[in-house]
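My main concern about presentation is that the manuscript never shows what a single data entry looks like. In essence, backbone conformation is discretised, so a fold becomes a row of integers matching the chain in length. An entry of this sort, consisting of the sequence and the corresponding backbone structure tokens, reads as follows:
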Amino acid sequence: MFKDKKELLYAIKQWKFQLSIIILVIISIALFLIYSKSDEETNDTKPIVTSHVNSNQKGKNHDVLKNDDKTNNKIESNTIQNGDEIVFVDIKGAVEHPNVYKMKSSDRIKDVLDKAKLLTDADLSQVNLSEKLTDQKLIYIPFANENKNPITQNDANNKSGHSKSLNSSSTNKVNINTASEAELLKIPGVGPAKVREIIDYRQKNNTFHSIEDLKNIKGIGDKTFERIKEYITT
């Protein structure tokens, strides 16, 4: 088959070389298959771990929700026990500081009067000082020489109606030359600050020669004068 020894050796070398290549190919294929299988097993285990983590997280979230519910229940319980709400009360009449006051629903009329400061000639004979306050309540404190009942209304929309009835029932005009501070406060739209300016002007100039002289006081312009002129005289 082989002519000489050299050809035999050459054939053996060729066969070894080809065998080495075949072995390398087989090893490469085997390694590829092993690696692929290992990668698939790794991927198969990942969802299980994720599912386990998610399950634990859900448990924690559930515990947090339970704790939040307990906290909310405690807050609601405290609110019910305290029972206090913020209310706004409008007070007018024989007080030094007529205004809208921010109070608590557990406060009484006496509490808001302590803030508004009663005038010396305020008439409390028909005022229930122990009455609890409600939101949008209007409280009118009458003067001692005023024959009117105190007004305590919950509906703020009735305030304008009350003002109209009060104005229309004022048959006696206020004499700006002789009226006291309390009497001047009865003029609609004239507050304590304006009353003091009227009295100061009257003392400096001895008298108001006519009701139009009121316009000489700062803050009493034509519009204000037109609104109050039917309630005043000299």
Observations:
- The CA atoms of residues 174 and 232 lie 5 Å apart.
